[in-house]
From TrEMBL:
HAMAP family: FtsH. Binds 1 zinc ion per subunit. Residues 199-337 form the AAA+ ATPase domain. In the C-terminal section; belongs to the peptidase M41 family. The chain crosses the membrane at residues 12-30, 117-135. Its main location: membrane. PANTHER family: ATP-DEPENDENT ZINC METALLOPROTEASE YME1L1, METALLOPROTEASE M41 FTSH. The lineage of its organism: Bacteria, Bacillati, Bacillota, Clostridia, Eubacteriales. It is found in: Cell membrane; Membrane. It comes from Clostridium aromativorans. Its cofactor is Zn(2+). This is ATP-dependent zinc metalloprotease FtsH.
Length: 627
């Protein structure tokens, strides 16, 4: 994966030398020990004694010593070799002859070579082999060298080919545009240097999860055809204190050796969190961050190293990271719009067999707010459904069902509702739909269903905007609240009894009403005063209040006022159109699912009939005109 020859072989040699020294030491000690076991020094006089007592079977005479092999039958002494220093004893041979002991010299060279081989070379080879095996395994387990603490143990690896290009990233045209420059810089850094331009050191990709930040970083590397070092911020702070900083150092060192290249730090908020505000402090994280800051200042960008980082919590990042000369560029990777969603769907449907009826524009319309990861997931869900139904192509129905699976979970046909429950659910859902149809500033109803879903909904009403919206007016928000409360209102006007089915509606309605008061300045009472701010914009974070406790209780009052008004309005609308409510609900119970056009045609038929009876019915306005 990693081709820097000089860098690599240098280290290898160092390790080989370490291994060799280690092995030599082990062998030396072992040899000494073994020799100590096998041979024993005795005095010359004892040796002579032994000869006289006929205890010796053989003597080998070498230059400086005599090696004595005893006759001993004792278990303990068997195989033992005795030796004594050679004393110039002219009678030695005579004594041996007399005792009928065999004697001779030692075949010098031969034993020396063999001994050397057996005692030194062979063990050396074996130990080297075992070490290799053992360390190899450990290395695999820990991701990198055990012999190299302080070196990087995180999975930093340079990919030479990420296999991702800009064309794989759809719906992020602005983001791509600002990254093209970086690609160009990596290609022709010389041109920039010549003209004296200061080169960008880093860019921060910011946006909600799943919008393609990681993908974009890879695409930059793919386009620039340079190595891509990728590491996640959390990997810097996982093991030992001090390791994080060492890793940062090592990362930058490697990067500079491989320049031009891209270093990508994903989820940088894990190390880049603001240092102020936490008194106890996380020393490890702080050290790592400081090291990162120092390295970013230190390296020479004209060599062609670009640092990319991604986060979905830019507001928690330390200000020092965003200073010029560090991550001075911010690339927003936001949720895709209608066109963007369609393009993303096109990218992901490429490898999938589809039938001619597939209309991706329609699916894109049905998925406002979905990010790239959701859409990729939807295509896959659709393909799975096609296989399940023994078809060889994905059709529009598969895709539509996949959208709903992502929104509401899988259908749960085995959940049997009692007839009473079914009634309650049907009226509830038609309540939402009818209020939506009767009010002016609402999105058209796309689908009403009372087929239960795995994510808890017993039924739901899907509204779809006709076009992508970037602004909401106060009227629209008020009407939205009415629609949310329409479910419960229908239960009330029809059964005069209420159920737990409105919990989610209540939560959403309250949230919308509260934001109107605290964030959007839509009440007379507070005028344009900002009372809350949203903390992490890209993670649907909770708002934080910036007001006194007294004001907070007035906020509650104002919110309640909006809710109560809307509830009253919904109830009145439904009461005035009771016949329609009952008629549509019956149809829904019968068919379980009504599509938007069926729903609207029921209303239209009813309206025509009613129009004939009395021409002064003004209740049905709004969408009826559009359809
Ligand atoms: P992030 O890093 O922003 O959380 P990722 O880059 O990991 O998101 O995206 C996850 C997956 O979603 C990608 O691998 C890709 O399949 C799909 N995806 C996300 N955004 C896009 C996009 N703009 N175009 C195409 N595919 C996308
Ligand atoms: Mg990511
Ligand atoms: Zn509801």
């Amino acid at each position: 994966m990693f081709n820097n020859k000089k860098f690599n072989s240098n280290k290898k040699w160092r390790y080989l030398i370490y291994y060799a020294l280690l092995a030599a030491m082990i062998i030396f000690v072992a040899n000494e020990y073994m020799n100590g076991l096998k041979s024993q020094h005795i005095k010359y006089s004892d040796f002579i004694n032994d000869i006289n007592q006929n205890k010796i079977s053989e003597v080998q005479i070498s230059k400086d010593k005599l090696i004595i092999i005893p006759k001993s039958q004792d278990e303990a002494d068997r195989g033992k070799v005795l030796y004594t220093e050679r004393i110039t004893d002219p009678d030695l041979i005579k004594k041996l002859d007399n005792a009928k002991i065999q004697y001779g010299g030692i075949p010098q060279e031969n034993t020396a070579i063999r001994g050397f081989f057996i005692n030194w070379v062979l063990p050396f080879i074996i130990i080297a082999f075992l070490l290799q095996l053992f360390l190899g395994k450990l290395n695999k387990k820990m991701g990198s060298g055990v012999m190299s603490f302080g070196k990087n143990t995180a999975k930093i690896y340079a990919e030479n080919e990420t296999g991702v290009n800009f064309k794989d990233v759809a719906g992020q045209e602005e983001a791509k545009e600002s990254l093209v420059e970086i690609v160009d810089f990596l290609h022709n850094s010389q041109r920039y240097v010549e003209i004296g331009a200061r080169l960008p050191k880093g860019a921060l990709l910011v946006g909600p999860p799943g919008t393609g930040k990681t993908l974009l970083a890879k695409a930059v590397a793919g386009e620039a055809k340079v190595p891509f070092f990728s590491i996640s911020g959390s990997a810097f702070v996982e093991m030992f204190v001090g390791m994080g900083a060492a890793r940062v150092r090592d990362l930058f060192q490697q990067a500079q050796e491989k320049a031009p290249c891209i270093v990508f730090i994903d989820e940088i908020d894990a190390i880049g969190k603001s240092r102020e505000g936490n008194i106890s402090g996380n020393d490890e994280r702080e050290q790592t961050l400081n090291q990162l800051l120092a390295e970013m200042d230190g390296f020479d960008s004209s060599k062609g190293v670009v640092i990319l980082a991604a986060t979905n919590r830019p507001e928690v990042l330390d200000k020092a990271l965003l200073r010029p000369g560090r991550f001075d560029r911010r690339v927003i990777v936001d949720r895709p719009d209608l066109k963007g969603r369609e393009d993303i769907l096109k990218v992901h449907i490429k490898g999938v067999k589809v039938s001619p009826d597939v209309d991706l524009n329609n699916i894109a319309k049905a998925t406002p707010g979905a990010v790239g990861a959701d859409l990729a997931n939807m295509i896959n869900e659709a393909a799975l459904r096609a296989v399940k139904n023994h078809r060889s192509q994905v059709n529009q129905e598969d895709l539509e069902e996949a959208v709903e699976v992502i929104i509401a979970g899988k259908e749960k046909k085995d959940r049997i509702l009692s007839p009473e429950e079914k009634q309650q659910v049907a009226f509830h859902e038609v309540g939402h739909a009818l209020v939506a149809a009767l009010l002016k500033h609402t999105d058209p109803v796309h689908k009403i269903t009372i087929v239960p879903r795995t994510m808890g909904a017993l039924g739901y009403t899907m509204q779809l905007p006709e076009e992508e919206k970037y602004l909401n007016t106060k009227e629209e928000m008020m009407d939205q609240i009415c629609v949310m409360l329409g479910g419960r209102s229908a239960e009330e006007v029809r059964f005069n009894s209420i159920s737990t089915g409105a919990a989610n509606d209540i939560e959403r309605a309250t949230q919308t009403a509260r934001r109107m008061v605290t964030i959007y300045g839509m009440t007379d009472r507070f005028d344009m005063m900002g009372l809350e701010s949203i903390q992490n914009k890209y993670l649907n974070g909770r708002p934080v209040q910036n007001c006194s406790i007294e004001t907070a209780s007035i906020i509650d009052e104002e919110t309640l006022k909006i809710i109560k008004e809307s509830h009253k309005k919904s109830r009145k609308l439904l009461k005035d159109n009771m016949d329609l409510l009952i008629g549509i609900s019956k149809k829904l119970i019968e068919k379980e699912t009504l599509m938007g056009d069926e729903f609207m045609s029921i209303i239209r038929d009813y309206n025509e009939k009613k129009g004939k009876e009395s021409s002064d019915n003004k209740a049905l306005t709004s969408h009826l005109e559009d359809v």
